[in-house]
TrEMBL record:
It comes from the Bacteria. The keyword Nucleotide-binding applies. Residues 370-382 have a biased composition (Low complexity). One of its GO terms (molecular function) is ATP binding. This is Sugar ABC transporter ATP-binding protein. Keywords: ATP-binding, Nucleotide-binding, Transport. The lineage of its organism: Bacteria, Bacillati, Actinomycetota, Actinomycetes, Kitasatosporales. Residues 5-235 form the ABC transporter domain. GO terms for cellular component: ATP-binding cassette (ABC) transporter complex, substrate-binding subunit-containing.
Length: 451
């Protein structure tokens, strides 16, 4: 039997009142594979542990199959958890590790048949008589998964189960997990910070930032229509190009988005989405272009809806089947501080004088709260003068050369310092306001994913 899980305005705070999960509402359908995705420290594992009953819910309500479950002990929730560090008993063989929870649930029952059936399902029959120290990382994770599967739970809760494995084994086990959960039809909540895992595994992806749910939807939807600049930047490889722009919409001329030394001229007649940009006249916006939205071609080869730019080659990344080209277009990059800002250097911080408005600790708390629940800020890349500072306040790490990354085929010969013509497909243009909210395509527009 599988299970429906619902979270209604759930919050969790630890010491000093800092909320690690803030008013999270999420419905998980029976048999659904939902991925909780976000950077480290965003509250993903805390949500999972609250569902499992390993953490108390401070505010809000948890419903399991429509019944109130906040106070239900973990043993009565009929869920199985797979941990990041495998959590196997070192003194037990693989057989005993898998059968241990079965012996606890039904002391008088022989667990051997279910252990053997689970081992056959996972292909680990030859590992049952080995101890964890005699197993590789991938083999230990298979045994840990077997321990969860053998219980026949109503839900699987997986907390970054593949993060300790090498890339090749991680890809292999990812496919196994996907196949197994679909065959078993069990509700699965999977926590990861790896967007490749999220996109390939989940029926839906829930993106968290600072304990706040940013967007939930199918992998294709969150990629094609990110709700804000944080989701756009977090999902996609290579990361989306984010450029600071200025909307110019004269009554007697064409609408353009200035990118610094160059501009994007919006073709007429304006599409509905581009018409809505008129209200941003004279305002700074954030322009998002994924690497596949730009191609290397001369202006004469432009298709309908494509506009020309030029770029100076600054860096080439050969990937075998493709090349990622880093161009300098004279644009002003926009960064997402939560993804780009450098971490504080280790060591004892220097003492500072108290200022008006509270102690240093109080000001740090206020800043932490703003980062968790406030608008998504952006920042200028270091080392580039900006005549129009705009809303940016954070400092960012040095990035790779260039301001625009374009994906192309390896047969196109390029070299460092070459001036190259580019064509931008405005059908794949994202525009975000100063607070990071998407304004183009229109937030009310739904993606046509059937084409």
């Amino acid at each position: 039997m599988t299970r429906a899980i619902s979270l209604h305005d759930v919050s969790k705070a630890y010491t000093r009142g800092t909320r690690v999960v803030d008013r999270l509402s999420l419905d998980i359908a029976p048999g659904e594979f939902l991925v909780l995705l976000g950077p480290s420290g965003c509250g993903k594992s805390t949500v999972l542990r609250m569902i499992a009953g390993l953490e108390d819910i401070d505010e809000g309500r948890l419903f399991l199959d429509g019944e109130y479950g906040n106070d239900l002990p973990p043993s009565d929730r009929d869920m199985a958890m797979v941990f990041q560090n495998f959590a196997l008993y070192p003194s037990m063989t693989g057989r005993d590790n898998i059968g241990f929870p079965l012996r606890i649930e039904a002391p008088g029952t022989d667990p051997a048949p279910r252990v053997d059936a689970t081992a056959r399902m996972l292909g680990i029959e030859d590992l049952l008589d080995r101890f964890p120290a005699q197993l590789s990382g991938g083999e230990r994770q298979r045994v840990a998964m077997g321990r969860a599967i053998a219980r026949h739970p109503s839900a699987f809760l997986m907390d970054e189960p593949l993060s300790n494995l090498d890339a090749k084994l991680r890809n292999h086990l990812r496919a196994e997990i996907s196949q197994l959960t679909r065959e078993l039809g069990v509700t699965t909540v999977y926590v990861t910070h790896d967007q490749s895992e999220a996109m390939s595994l989940g029926d839906r992806v829930a993106v968290l930032r600072g304990g706040v749910l940013q967007q939930v939807g199918s992998p294709r939807t969150v990629y094609a229509l990110p709700e804000n600049v944080f989701v756009a930047a977090f999902i996609g490889t290579p990361r989306i190009n984010l450029l600071r722009g200025l909307v110019r919409a004269p009554l007697d001329g064409a609408m353009t988005i200035s990118l610094g030394k160059q501009f994007l001229r919006l073709p007429e007649p304006l599409s509905l989405d581009h018409q809505l940009l008129r209200v941003q006249q004279g305002r700074e916006v954030i322009v998002g272009l994924r690497s596949e939205a730009v191609r290397i071609a001369k202006p004469a080869a432009a298709r309908t809806g494509e506009v020309a730019l030029t770029g100076l080659v600054e860096h080439l990344e050969f990937q075998g089947h493709e090349v990622l080209v880093h161009f300098d277009t004279g644009s002003r990059p926009a960064l997402v501080p939560e993804l780009e800002a450098p971490r504080p250097a280790p060591g004892r911080p220097a003492r500072r004088r108290r200022r008006e408005g509270g102690t240093v600790l109080e000001r740090l708390r206020e800043r932490a709260g703003a980062l968790r629940a406030g608008p998504v800020a952006t920042a200028e890349a270091p080392g580039r003068p900006d005549p129009d500072p705009g809303p940016a306040t954070a400092t960012a790490e040095p990035r790779l050369p260039g301001d625009l990354i374009v994906r192309t085929t390896p047969d196109i010969r390029l070299r460092h310092g070459m001036q190259v013509p580019l064509l931008v497909d405005l059908a794949h243009l994202f525009v975000f306001d100063q607070h990071g909210r998407r304004i183009c395509p229109s937030p009310d527009r739904l993606p046509d994913l059937e084409e």
